[in-house]
C-alpha cells in the first residue's frame, strides 16, 4: 500500500531551517550507497563470493570489519557489492513505473472525456488491489527471478504514479501558458512532453524519491521471500534471508547488518524525498 | 443507491480480477500436465489423456474459465495439485492462523497508533511530540522482515521470552506465540495511524466549535474527548480500515519469517511448487477480503459523519 508521505508534518519555515541537518546526513548516506555500488571492486576488501571455512560467523572487528557469514564470506564486501542489485533494481522499478504512470496520467488529464474515464477505471481497479498481489501473480506466472520481480513491482507501482500525475496535470493544464501554446498551434504530444512535463517535474520528484525508498523496501521483501535475485547474489534482502540461519543460534550479524543497511537507505530517501517536495513545490 | 453502485463496482472488480487471475495461470509457460502428473515415469499417453480430460485442458480458454467460475460460485475452488485435497479444506485449516494474527495486529495498531497520535497532538511542539514523530517516521522506513528478524534475535533468542516459530497451542499459547509476529506486522501501521490521528486532531483543534467549547469553560479533557477526538474519528477509521484491508493480504512475509502456517506462507509454498489452484484461490481470497473491508469502511463512514449521509441523499 502506498502511504502519502508527501505532506510534511511541520510546515513552518522557522522549524524547517533548524532541522536542516537530517537532509544533509541523508544525502550523505545515499551518496555513500551510490559510491559503494559504482566502485564496488575498488573499495571492497574481499571478494563477495570468496568463502573461508576457517572464519565462519566471525564477529565484527579484526580482519573482517563487519564479520563473516555462514560460509565465511566477508559481510562488508557483500554489503558493498549488494548495493548494485539493490539500488539498480529499485531504479529500474521506479523508471518503468514512472514512464508508465506518467504517460497514463498525462494522457488521461489531457484528453479528458472517455479516455480519462477508461484509464481512471483501469488504474482504480489496479489501485484497489494490494500491490503485492500483482507481483505474486506475475511471479507465479512467469517464475521467480530479478527481472520478473522488478517488472511485477513496476506494474504494481504504476497506478499510484498515474493517479498522482493525473491530479497535478489536471491542475497545471488550466494555466494560461497551456492555452497560449495551444493557440500557437503546438500539437498535443509536443506540448505535453516539452512544456507540460517540465512544469510537473518539481512536484513529481519529491514524490518519486519517497517511492524509491518504498520500492527498494518492497523489492528487498521479495528477495527475502526468495522470489527475486538468487544466490550467490548479495542483494540485501537475500542476505537477510541467508543470515536467518545464524539468528536462531544467537549469531545476529549476518542478518542484522544488511537489514539495518536497507533501513538506513530507506530512511535517508524518505527524509530526502519529503524535504525535496517541500523545497521544489514551494512555487505552488 | 450508493450501496447499490458500490455493489455493482465490487462485482465488476471481482469478475475482472478473477479473469486476470485465471488468465495469468492459463498463460503460464510450461505444460500443466507435467506438473499434474509429476513423476515422468507415469507419462503414458493414456494417463495424459485422462488428466487432460479431468482438468478440461482440451477446451478453449473461455470455456475453461466459465467452468472454473461456475465451480467457484458453487464454493468449489478445485483441488490442490500437491496436497491432493480440496483447496477449500486447505484454506479452512490455514485461515484461523492468519485471521488471529491480523486481529491481534489490528488491536495493536489501532490502540497504540491512536494513543500515540492523540498524545503527540495534545503535546504539539514539545519534546514528546518530536520524539513520537521522529520514531514513527523511522518505523515506516524499516521493512517488516527486518523488524521480524530483530524481534526474534532480541526477544526469542537472547531473552527467550517468546518462541522462535510456530503458532502455539490453545488460546493463551496462541496469543503468546503470535505476539512477536503481530508486533512486526503492526509496527508500520502504528506509525501511519498515529500520524493521521495527529494531523486530523491538530486540524480540529483550531476549529471554531472547539474554540467556543473552550471559551465556555469546558474542561480540556472534555473538549478533547467530545469535540476534537470525536470529529477526528472519520479519517482515522478510514485509514485503519485501509490498513486492515491491506494486512489481510500482507501477512506473507511475517508468516514466512515466524514459521506460521497461515494463508501467506501457503501462498509462498504454492508458488514454489506451481500449485496453481491454490495460488488462484488465495489471490481471489485476498482480493475479496480487501474489497469487503474497504466497503465496510465506506458503509460505516456516514454513520460517523452526518454530513456525508446528508450529501449522498440530496
Feature tags:
heterodimer, A: 284 residues, mainly alpha, MetI-like fold, 11 helices, elongated, B: 314 residues, 0% strand, globular
Describe the structure.
The complex is a heterodimer of chains A (284) and B (314). The longest helix of chain A is centred in the N-terminal third of the chain and has 37 residues. In chain A, helix 2 packs across helix 11. Chain A has one domain: MetI-like (MetI-like fold). Chain A has 284 residues and is mainly α. Chain A has eleven helices and no strands. Chain B is an all-alpha fold. The chains are: A mainly alpha (284), B mainly alpha (314). Chains A and B meet through helix 6, helix 9, helix 10 and helix 11 of A and helix 1, helix 6, helix 7, helix 8 and helix 10 of B.
Architecture blueprint of SSEs:
The complex is a heterodimer of chains A (284) and B (314).
Chain A: H1 13-18, H2 21-38, H3 40-43, H4 75-111, H5 113-128, H6 131-142, H7 146-173, H8 176-183, H9 188-224, H10 236-247, H11 253-280
Helix pairs in contact in A: 2-4, 2-11, 4-5, 4-7, 4-9, 5-7, 6-7, 7-9, 9-10, 9-11, 10-11
Chain B: H1 2-27, H2 32-37, H3 45-54, H4 61-73, H5 87-122, H6 127-140, H7 144-158, H8 170-205, H9 208-215, H10 220-248, H11 252-257, H12 263-272, H13 276-304, H14 306-313
Helix pairs in contact in B: 1-4, 1-13, 5-6, 5-8, 5-10, 6-8, 7-8, 8-10, 9-10, 10-13, 12-13, 13-14
**Would you identify the regions of chain B where 5 or more consecutive residues have pLDDT less than 50?**
none
Kindly report the average pLDDT value of chain B.
82
Biggest beta-sheet profile of chain B? none
The global form of chain B is: globular
Rg of chain B (CA only): 24 Å
Report the total helices of chain A: 11
Q: What proportion of the residues of chain A form beta strands (DSSP E)?
A: under 5%
Total strands of chain A: 0
CATH architectural label of chain A: Orthogonal Bundle
Radius of gyration over C-alpha positions of chain A, nearest whole angstrom: 22 Å
Order of helices and strands of chain B: HHHHHHHHHHHHHH
Biggest interface goes to:
A-B, 47 and 54 residues
How would the global form of chain A be characterised? elongated
Query: Percent helix among the residues of chain B?
Result: over 70%
